[in-house]
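Hey,

The postdoc asked me to send both predictions to you directly instead of through the lab channel. I've kept everything plain text so nothing gets mangled by the mail client. Protein one:
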Amino acid sequence: MPETVLVVGATGTIGISAIIGALRTKRNVLAIVRNSTSADKMFRHVGTREGITTVEANVISEHGVQGVVDKVKSGELPAFQHVYCAVGGVKTVTPLKDLTTAELMENFDANYVANFYAYRATVPYLLTQSNPTTWTLITGAIGDAGWWSGPAMTQGALFSMGVAAELENRETNVRFNEMYLAFLVNVDEDAVKEEAVKMGAIKASEFAKVYEGILARDEIKGSKVLLYGPDDIKTLRWESKAWTGPR
């Protein structure tokens, strides 16, 4: 029976890319969507409905992903062996000195806390399985570059979450990895538009090769996969997330 990938943040560009990658590896997908409209958009960008099961949930809610896992455990939804987490999308451009508390919390809730909720809900389920599993997190270079202070700070929190997750899962059956993205990815139909081409956007279907590679290569474990440019799609580069002490 084919394995299944749970995609959290499935209707965003990176989530769509993950679905394409998972399907290419002959795995099925359990995609969390907001509603039927967002599901239809996802199906259109992926190019197929085959092999994809959708479930509606609010991933920003504390109990959103946990509710999905509970349905999996009860047999209402297919079991999954892999998790791809790409929750985010809030891009507040307010300067740091002017950032309101409401804007700060909006950024952290959508761009960081939702990813934490997904991890907390799914990793215990993966740990109960006897076979190897994976958990993949997408982060952005904005956390190092500092553009847009609100989302930049959330990426810093995700970097640290990844370090903690690597340590926790170092000796478990969960192969945790972080994908560190430093270039623009668009859904295929948008990536060919003039403005996107000028910005060097990569098609989601092309970026999907990265996730295919991570799923296929067991030696990529506890690592940050470095994605600085299109060449890093063709030849994967990674470094350990394990802390090695002061440099």
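Protein two:
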Amino acid sequence: MGFADFMSDAGLSMLEHWVTTRSYIAGYGPSQADVASFKALPGPPKVEKYPHAWRWYKHISSYQSEFTSLPGDPSKAYTTYGPEKSELTVNPKDAPKSAEAEEEEDDDLFGSDDESEDEEAKKKREENLAAYKKKKEGKAKPAAKTIVTLDVKPWDDETDMKKLEENLRSIEMDGIKWGASTLVPLAFGIKKLQITLVVEDEKVSIDDLQEQIAGDEDHVQSTDVVRLLLLPIQSLG
């Protein structure tokens, strides 16, 4: 399906939905997909209505001097990117199932509660259902974790990188464990901070974390996700 016309509310809503959980249109770094989508917009989306699209737009604007060198096919239209089908619920039947509906499905695993069902069969079904629910509720789910490597770029060579890192590590979010860091030369004496962290996927949004880091406007110019490594989940038995 791809993106719709960004001049319409439907198109902007689709973009907003797409970048809510993504830093870039495609992949884990800026590319021609971002360039094409950026150029299709007449200007930054309204932050009060499309906060994630606005954040993405401001981030990509910092790469304008590098647009021609970013990877990807510059001949592709922005409409070739985005969701393969609409991710916005249009038909009620496509809406996520409620907890009640899921419970009803669990009931069906053990037969229907038909009025013609004899008492012995009904009792057996209820026992099986109770045992199943007890097992389901008592089984703790191990937390899914991801190793994230971030690049944090300063404004210039005069930026206090020690203070930048100090501010970054002071960010407190449940589910984050900061790791090793290093300074990587860019150009003209400018160095970026590359830092590794482990996040619990259900607790931490990478986009939210990047927004918090970008809040240090005196030191941080932009952030990029360099790599993501999903850690294997260890079974609890």
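Summary for protein two, as requested: DSSP finds seven helices and four strands in the chain.

Thanks,
C.
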